[in-house]
Each structure stands twice: as C-alpha cells, then as structure tokens.
Design brief:
The complex is a heterodimer.
Chain A lengths: L1 E6 L4 H17 L3 E6 L2 H6 L7 E4 L2 E5 L5 H9 L1
Helix pairs in contact in A: 1-3
Chain B lengths: L2 H14 L7 H30 L5 H8 L4 H14 L7 H10 L4 H13 L2 H11 L1 H24 L8 H13 L15 H36 L4 H6 L6 H9 L6 H13 L4 H13 L2 H7 L5 H25 L4
Helix pairs in contact in B: 1-2, 2-7, 2-10, 4-6, 4-8, 5-6, 6-8, 7-8, 7-13, 8-16, 10-13, 12-14, 12-16, 13-14, 14-16
The chains are: A alpha+beta, B mainly alpha.
Chain lengths: 78, 332
C-alpha cells in the first residue's frame, strides 16, 4: 500500500489533486492511503513552497501544480 | 488593431440587438462587449507569450536568489520578483515559510508578498491598453515602492519578534545555515520548447480560469458607471480630490475584494468620469492588496500584532499615495 500525502493549504487545486489521485488509484485497483496535509509547519518541513505538492512514502515527487494523469500513473505503478 | 473590438461591439449592440445609439443602455452594453472581448483576447495571447518566456522562473529559484543577499538589494529584488513571479495567493503561506526557513529577512519576504498582488503581467497589460503607458509606469513604480518601503520598515522595527514561534525558529535555523548553499537540487534546469509550451498552456488556462469572472464583474461595474451614473456626478462631487475622499475610498476598498484584473476596468471608468488619479490609485490598491481573507491566512505564521502592523502600513501608504498623486496629478 502506498502512503500518499497531498500538501496544500486547502485551495481548490489541492482538493482536485487528491480527487484525481484517488480516482486513478481506484481505476487501477491500487490500494492507497491518502491524507490531505494542510498544516503549514508540516508543509514547510517538506521544503515545499508551491502547492499542491505530492509526497509518496515520505518522498516528495511533485509540487506547484495539479499533476498530469501520466505522472500519477507512473507513481502508482512504478 | 484594437478597433475590431469596437466594431464587433457596435455590430452586436446596434445591428443585432437593434438598440438605438447614444442611449444609456446602448452605451453601457457597447462598452461591456467591447471591453470584455478586448480584454479576453489580450489576456489569452499575452499570458501565453509571457508564460512561455518565463517558464523556468519559479518561487524556488527566487528564494535561492534572495537568500543571503544584502538587505537593500534584497528589498528591491524581493519587490521586483514579486511583480514578475507567477504565484497563486493560496501559496502565500508556504512561500512565506520557504523564504523564512532559507534565512531571508521578514522584510524582504513581505516586499515580495505585498508587491505580488499589486503588480503582475495581467495588470500591466490591462493598464497599458486601457490607461496608457505613462499611467502604467507610475503604477508599477508606486507598487514596487510600497513593497520595498513596507519591507524595510518591518525589518527596522524587528518584525520577526512577532512571528508565530515555529516560524521564528525556522528563521533562526535558516540564518544559521545561510552560509551553506540551500538549493537542494530540487529544481530542474533548462526546459525544452515542448515543456515550455506545456507550462505556458497550463498557466494560460489556469490564470484565465481564475480571472475571467473578475473581468466580467469589473467591466460590468464599469459599464454600469458608463451608462447609469449621471455625467459629471463623480467630477462634481469628488473631482477636486477632497482630502477625505482618499481615506474614504481606501476604507471602502477593504471589504471589496478583487484582483488587479477586475479592478482595472473599473479604474478606467472612474478616471474617464473625472475621479482624480490619486483617489483612483488608492481605491484600486486597497481593493487588491488589503483583503481580510488573505490576511486571516497570514495569521498562521504571524501573531495578531504583526498582522495589524502590516495591515496598517498598507492602509497608510495607500492613503499617502492617493494624496501625493492628487497633488501632482494635474501636472502629469
């Protein structure tokens, strides 16, 4: 199971990012645990400045925009 | 070239809708159609063009550049980057903390954050096309000065005392580490043309998606002014730049929240109708930069006291700007 965190202060783009990741994971039948992290202190600890950002198993994989579908697929499968 | 938008509006208003020219309603509708189509077309073209050029500029690079800079260079560059760096206001907290934890002084960070909503490529573009380049130059200079002076002032009163404790700790840690390089190798280097196109396309759609409704609201208000406020009313009541009118519009601007894109079409109408330049600038800047929702966000990293100081600085500087430009406006 992949532990996924979506970092962001709760803006529309962050919500959207979480939705897309969940949808793609469901579609592929991949089991994930997704958390939306809004605490600025935690976001700072990941050294992220542009949200939304995505952390997978404690590794920062993306920041600054809603990720494209192909990127999400490669994180989930790869 | 911009004539086609006027022609289009004329055709729609007078031929298609069959309205009588020179009536209030026809004037208002003509103005609305001309300005929205013109602004939408310019926005799409220009945002894409600008995004293509600056695709590799982002807040991470700005942070690395500003870290360890001399204060005075810092205020200038902080404010300058605030004007040109694309960044969504929902990221202000992470940006604030990112700058802070890189050891950048609070004043430089605030110079960046204050200038950012006031000046951006969309605002500049609209100003040039609606109000001319002289006004645009003044607007940009004034906006940057507000950011720089506010930043310098905040550092001079040691504003970092009133950060929330975790942010203050991050600043201390950042300053201690500032001698080392703080780029973490996170930032990719140069982009290919295809990548730039993708960034630019995303950004164009993103910005357009965010601002189109503001354009409609702004132009709609402008149209209402055009069509329905009696000629000469504004000029007769506020045209002399009465001193109290400036603080009054600054206060009115606080609960009104708009971004620069929405307020500029309104400015155009106000100026055409004889509102003095200083009063108009003060109103516009207050609407754009002093808004409660954004300030409440900053509460996560600042104590109330600092928040109140920043807010007061903005209101005072907008009032001063209004008075100064009302005084020198007739000479411009």
């Amino acid at each position: 199971m992949l532990n996924i965190k979506v970092l962001g202060s709760g803006c529309a783009k962050c919500t959207k990012t979480a939705e897309i990741i969940t949808a793609i994971a469901n579609e592929k039948g991949i089991c994930i645990a997704l958390v939306k992290e809004t605490n600025p202190e935690v976001i700072m600890d990941y050294k992220v400045m542009s949200t939304p950002a995505v952390v997978i198993d404690e590794k920062l994989v993306h920041w600054g925009s809603i990720p494209h579908r192909s990127m999400i697929e490669s994180w989930l499968v790869g | 070239m911009l004539q086609i938008f006027s022609d289009l509006a004329g055709w729609l208003t007078f031929d298609l809708m069959g309205l009588e020219p020179n009536t209030k309603l026809a004037d208002a509708i003509h103005f609305f159609i001309e300005d929205t189509t013109k602004i939408f077309a310019l926005l799409l073209l220009m945002i894409y063009g600008i995004a293509l050029v600056r695709a590799s500029l982002n807040v991470e690079r700005v942070r690395d550049y500003l870290a360890g800079k001399n204060r005075f260079v810092g205020y200038f560059m902080g404010s300058g980057f605030g004007a040109v760096t694309p960044f969504c206001s929902c990221s202000s907290i992470p940006v604030f903390l990112g700058f802070t934890s890189a050891g950048i002084p609070v004043g430089i960070t605030m110079a960046f954050l204050i200038t950012s909503p006031l000046i951006n490529e969309v605002a500049v573009l609209l100003l040039v096309s609606l109000l001319g380049w002289q006004f645009t130059v003044i607007y940009v200079l004034v906006g940057m000065s507000v950011g720089m002076l506010a930043g310098a002032f905040l550092d001079s009163i040691r504003a970092e005392r009133w950060l929330q404790s975790f942010a203050a700790k991050a600043l201390e840690k950042g300053k201690a580490q500032a001698s080392h390089s703080n780029s973490e190798g996170m930032i990719s280097t140069s982009l290919t043309l295809a990548e730039r196109h993708r960034v630019a396309k995303d950004e164009t759609l993103g910005i357009f998606g965010r601002v189109w409704k503001w354009v409609i609201i702004g132009v709609g208000l402008g149209a209402a002014l055009h069509g329905f406020v009696p000629d000469g009313w504004i000029e007769a009541h506020l045209g002399d730049g009465q001193w109290w009118s400036v603080p009054a519009v600054v206060i009115i601007g606080i609960p009104l929240y708009s971004n620069a894109t929405g307020v500029i079409p309104v400015m155009e109408s106000l100026i055409t109708y004889g509102l003095p330049v200083g009063t108009t600038l003060a109103f516009c800047m207050s609407t754009v930069a002093a808004s409660f929702p954004e300030f409440i966000l900053l509460k996560q990293v600042m104590q109330w006291r600092l928040l109140a100081i920043v807010f007061a600085i903005l209101l005072i500087s907008f009032t001063l700007i209004g008075w100064i430009f009302n005084a020198i406006g007739p000479m411009l």
